[in-house]
Design a protein that fits this description.
30% helix, 3 domains, Rossmann fold, D-amino Acid Aminotransferase, Chain A, domain 1, single chain, seven-stranded mixed beta sheet, alpha+beta, 9 helices, Dna Ligase, domain 1
Length: 325
């Protein structure tokens, strides 16, 4: 089996990332693993869509070994039509080249239409790749949410509520530029102005359970990823005095538990994810509602494997490859 993985770039790939774990797992389950960055894709009208790839042959023991091996390999051209599957493991929110990310998805959508199994679906990623996707979810599965690029409308929505709200950019990552505000906040307009200069702004009602942290639930084909009775769920606890629980702002990971109410929410959202070809997804829960849907480079695997002593990544890769269309 020949499998490819598209990443942002090799310079930002580190062993602690789930993507390095995925490459290691793929090296055991596929004959060849061809890894390339978004800048390595190209199309030739005579021969089709290609990528300049670094090709791993043979099993790698650890994510560290995977990163080291990729750092030493030379690139060679691979025609995408000759692959069995291609996994997209980019993170556009951490790349300063949005035009490359967008056009890479367009090329992969063309390849998918021609028969290549691309995971997650490029067209699905285009629709769900920002927090604007929350607008497509059932209202009862998310906090009260308002999305606009108009700062006056954002301010009006926040001031029309009695409870606090959270403002964030539609394309943000790692908890950057996320603010908790109230209807009487003196800097509300300034925050709305600043965020709107980045594009669409997502305003959400503050969920009381946020003070206790959020829970990342990893889904495979619309269901919580489960191995030997353990489910891939990680609770992230915010540091003292902070409402954000992202690891990059000081949040602490703990084993997560999926409640019945969370399962009910998953069951409401899963049909849309499956319809869009979004097979590997991370849902971030506050209580029983979803505040974010992670469809690019879903993380949390390293902590989940550490807490539950369970090979979740191997199971995810096996599931993704065994059920190819």
């Amino acid at each position: 089996m020949r499998v490819a993985v598209m990443i942002n770039d090799f310079g930002t790939l580190v062993p602690s990332q789930a993507t390095a774990m995925m490459v290691r797992s793929l090296s055991e389950q596929a004959d060849e693993v061809a890894v390339f960055g978004v800048e390595d894709l190209y199309s030739d009208s005579r021969t089709g869509i290609h990528a300049r790839c670094r090709i791993v042959r043979g099993a790698l023991p650890t994510p560290q070994a995977a990163v080291e091996a990729l750092g030493e390999l030379e690139s060679s051209a691979v025609r995408l039509s000759g692959l069995d599957a291609l996994l997209i493991r980019t993170n556009p929110g951490r790349d300063h080249r949005p035009w490359l990310q967008e056009n890479a998805l367009r090329l992969l959508a063309i390849a998918a239409d021609a028969g290549l199994d691309v995971i997650n679906s490029p067209k699905g990623l285009h629709l769900a790749g920002s927090k604007v996707f929350l607008a497509s979810l059932p209202a009862e599965t998310i906090p009260p949410t308002f999305i606009s690029s108009n700062p006056t409308e954002i301010v009006s929505w926040v001031r029309g509520r009695d409870e606090p709200s959270v403002l964030k950019p539609a394309t943000g990552t790692r908890g950057n530029d996320v603010f908790k505000v109230g209807p009487e906040s003196k800097n509300l307009r300034a925050i709305a102005d600043m965020l709107s200069r980045q594009g669409m702004v997502v305003a959400q009602g503050f969920v009381a359970e946020a003070v206790d942290g959020d829970t990342r639930v990893i889904l495979l084909d619309g269901e919580p990823l489960a191995v030997n009775g353990h489910e891939a769920a990680i609770r992230r606890v915010p540091p003292a005095g902070e409402f954000r629980s992202n690891i990059h702002v000081g949040g602490s990971p703990e084993p997560g538990v999926i409640s019945d109410a969370m399962r009910a929410t998953v069951s409401r959202i899963a049909p849309l994810l499956n319809q869009l070809g979004l097979r590997l997804v991370g849902l971030d829960f506050l209580g029983s509602v979803v505040c974010e849907v992670n469809v690019f480079s879903t993380g949390g695997f390293r902590d989940a494997e550490r807490f539950f002593d369970t090979p979740f990544m191997d199971a995810a890769v096996r599931g993704l490859l065994s059920s190819r269309n």
